[in-house]
Amino acid sequence: MxxxxxxxxxxxxxxGPAAAQAQTAGxxxxxxxxxxxxxxxxTGIMFGLGTAHHQCAVWCAVGGIPVAIxxxxxxxxxxxxxxxEDISVASPKIVKIQSHEVTVxxxxxERDGVKYLLVDKVADDKGIVNLTHDEHGVVPxxx
Amino acid sequence: MRKLALAVVLALAAPSAHAAEPxxxxxEKLVSFKGxxxxxxxxxxxxxxxxxxxxxxxxxxxxxxxxLFTASKSNTLFAGAARDLLPWCGKTIEIDGLLIxxxxxxxxxxxxxxxxxxxxxxxxxxxxxDWTAAxxxxxEWWRADPTVKATLAPNGxxxxxxxKWPK
Lengths: 143, 167
Known about the structure:
The complex is a heterodimer.
Chain A: H1 2-21, E1 27-37, H2 38-43, H3 50-62, E2 67-70, E3 76-82, H4 92-96, E4 101-111, E5 114-125, H5 133-136
Chain B: H1 2-13, E1 28-39, H2 40-45, E2 59-63, E3 68-73, H3 82-85, E4 92-102, E5 105-114, E6 122-123, H4 126-135, H5 141-144, H6 146-152
Parallel strand pairs in B: 3-5
Antiparallel strand pairs in B: 1-2, 1-4, 2-3, 4-5, 5-6
């Protein structure tokens, strides 16, 4: 007992205060929604949804702006990891599925008003189904 | 009198306390605060690679009040701020920028960074500098970028082969 307690204390000391304070597991969730770039979709600038904004969503994802899943209720889940790819800045997997309607299984952390999602698996990908260009054209710049 | 004059000169010469530019966005607030630069995933889960993920992970700031802000946007158009924060991993800096207080998700644009109050805020333009060094100068990096081109080429700018633009 004393040995295991000593080991736990030693491990916490090795990992440092950030690791010692961090949660180790989030809540298991399944989320369905559109893959969006957070800046345009959250601020509402450049109409950040669907086909009208697909090109800009790719620009932003490649530029390293965090990507989120926006569900049907308008809630955002910022993606910090996807499947086996431990990259959240210009993640090649995320860039490829910009604007897609997906269902994902993952781990949810909430802090200071932001929902953060670690995606274990993309369970379903319907592709791009939010056809917004008829109404909005291509945003921004029209081309 | 000389002390007063000196105080006026020092005040005029001092870097502005708040240099952020408004964008006129809904729920936008000009902010400036000190915070420790962190790897967001490390802070949440205790999954902590060296060097805050070496540019592959989203970075943020933990304010002196303990609040976590992910730095989502830089001064470069269509680009994030991870490259600007990376050199400061684990250190406390001061930033200025915009906080958009959308109830669905607050989002932070970092426009300037400085280490100490006696310095000017340095603009967050590292993405543009790195991109230009790697690809050469372009008026619009987002149209010239090889990854963007390769991503959009198969299906077009609407993202679907069956949809054409312009119609």
